[in-house]
Specification:
The chain is about 60% helix and about 15% strand. It is an alpha+beta fold. The protein has one domain (about 5-90). It has a two-stranded antiparallel sheet with strand order 1-2. The longest helix has 28 residues, at about 5-30. The chain is flat. The two termini are about 30 Å apart.
């Protein structure tokens, strides 16, 4: 692997990480009430999974977990994974 390719990959990673940190910060600032907190955590978690899967393996057809929050009838909240390929995951963002 050449230095130019390695440097390009590193700068792409740093750029994506900065974007993710900015996204998380904006989501947390916008979540002032506890009722909207689960929706914000849902977006943060899913964006992070998309970011990591796209950086690790862009061409894979493997199914990866894409999480959503689900509230049970008794009021408890649990994670509900849906399976997505990295391409489907990135298209949702």
């Amino acid at each position: 692997m050449s230095d130019r390719t390695l440097l390009g990959s590193f700068s792409e990673y740093v750029s994506g990480l900065c974007t993710y940190i900015l996204f998380v910060t904006l989501q947390l600032v916008s979540c002032s009430s506890s009722t909207r907190l689960l929706g914000c955590l849902d977006r943060i978690l899913n964006f992070g999974i998309c970011f990591l899967t796209n950086k690790l393996n862009r061409t894979s057809d493997a199914q990866l977990p894409f999480y959503t929050w689900r509230r049970n009838l008794d009021g408890r909240v649990e994670l509900n994974p849906r399976m997505r390929t990295p391409q489907q995951c990135s298209s949702e963002w």
